[in-house]
Amino acid sequence: MPDPAICVENLGKKYRLQHRQEGRRYKTLRDALTTVPRRLWSRLSRGSAATDDRHASSVEDFWALKDVSFEIPQGEAVGIIGRNGAGKSTLLKLLSRITEPTTGRIDLIGRVASLLEVGTGFHPELTGRENIFLNGAILGMSRTEIKARFDEIVAFAEVERFLDTPVKRYSSGMYMRLAFGVAAHLEPEILIVDEVLAVGDASFQKKCLGRMSQVSTQGRTVLFVSHNMGAVTTLCRSAIWLEGGRVVRSGPARQIVDEYLTSNANAASAATELSDRPRYGDQGRRLRIEKVEWLSGFPLQHDEAFRLRIYFQTFDEVHAISFGLGFSNLEGVRLLSYDTDFQDGYRPDIRKGSVCWVDIKVAELPLAPGLYSFSVGSRSGDAFSLDYLPETGQVEVVMGPKTPGYIAVPGAGVRLRSDWNWHSGSPQIEPVNSTLS
Amino acid sequence: MNPSRLTIEAGKGELHYWADLWRYRELFYFLSWRDILVRYKQTVIGVLWAILRPILTTVVFAFVFGKLARMPSPGVPYIVLVFAGMLPWQFFSSALTEASNSLVTNANMISKIYFPRLIVPSSAIIVAFADFLISLVLLAGLMVIYHIFPTWRLLALPIFTAIAFLAAFGAGLWLAALNVEYRDFRYVLPFLVQFGLYLSPVGFSSEIVPEKWRLLYSLNPMVGVIDGFRWAITGVESAIYWPGFAVSMALVVVLLLSGLWYFRRTERAFADVI
To answer: Which end of chain B is less crowded, N or C, counting CB atoms within 10 A of the terminal residue's CB?
Structure first.
């Protein structure tokens, strides 16, 4: 067994949760200046513990990660999987030294580069060329290193012609390619990657995955967080499954992913809270999808009806809105889409500050039995995306009463009813279907 | 090959700090370069602003204090007196403002990438320094117009500039860290800067301050710096009040050391709070 590249012992990270007033994210000086006298006053006037108790209960300790230990040998690609809030991002932040652990220790043998976001520090006013140098420096490359790889980065990103254009004029695809290009040409011994591939189109994702598998075959250690189970199983040899800040299991990637998915589909509750999910589009600033609920219950059945309710809130007046529901296979390929305005083009305007929900009812779900991920999103008008949650959740589709048993093969995708006609060129065999002429 | 080994242990963050600071010096260079580039990118507005701001404020101050209030000027044109004070003050105040807001402005970077956070406020000051260099050219013009010949004292200018730099850095560290913790600090800051402008001898000579108050007055570190600038530029003999200057310097040192201490103490939690 090769020497370990990453060694983690009893790692823990505690956060102090403060339950503050709604809509206020930050501590303010005003609060600090007013609470101290108020507390003193209440203590002096009543000397009671009643108000103190209330203060104590508004602060709560929360272990985002607790007693995590593992060892990763050199040259291994490891996937970290788990539900949202399982502690994956915290683990990456600790490994990349962005925050400090509360307990335990980490040993990293070799140069570490972490990529928690594509294009950190990119400045829209600067040109592509300038941003390559800036971003490279932010990611820990020296100027000579960046110079040496400059041409490679530009070729990867396919932006030769726009090198001296400010990146604010780039299309989002060009921007992503350039940003990933810089990161992809880091050459550390240990590479830590968060879900950076969730954005970008399919060809971009493919390119990134290709580059990453290249990196991991060069004998570098890769730590990879993703919701894309397909990417984890193709890229990684082993996987670590986190749940509630602890390691549930670790082992060969394929096996761990299977166990994780099975437990997920079984444990999935019909309602999924979405308030803390990563969002795209307008990031839910004007309209935010809060929750989805499968009214028809779990699991979904092939060829049977299902109903889904999408709860949302508006923070601004929104016009001509529509919602969409999509199903993808675990490799992230979209198989099925439903839209509210598909049938009749109805797109309502909704007032600021409304709390609403919208129901979709599908008479027959055409997805073949298997595991799928689904996503919901909302648009205003034809193109403007108000809120989009690319990995809203996972669902299992099982055989329904109308499903013939033999089609329960994985990877069947969408399975629809269809009429088939049999013909024969030979007169000895009668056509099966008599309606044929 | 002997790969580098890094140990992260709870509560022992500072082990590599100063070595890291050296290792990340290129990031410091790039961030300063980015800020300067962005500032002067819209060339006309950027450079013009750096020129116009000191000129306009100087003219107004010279008019109000020199003409309306008839403050005494110790043997130099009033406008030169004001400009010599305005130059370090403007540098100090914009360096302080930039440094204080720098962490919040770069919040995204701080929550996604590790690097010694000290780089952020220090590179923010460099932008203010670029503006300062432009103002120096204006000063040269002013000296030519008013026939003020530079003396050997001008050589002391970098020293006073360095003091202003350190004062802004020290105070900036405090404010930057407080700004992360208490988000409404940025509303306090413009007020502090405004207040400082009138507390510092920018529009007038510090000699008008009664003798018995001067030591107290020197508690403002910019008093020593501004006096120093006037002494170096105008060549007026008595511009520096040495006991006061010593107090100013001691305060700068205290500000700097305590700023570093507070920044280092709170720095570890930045990514969690920001």
So the answer is: N
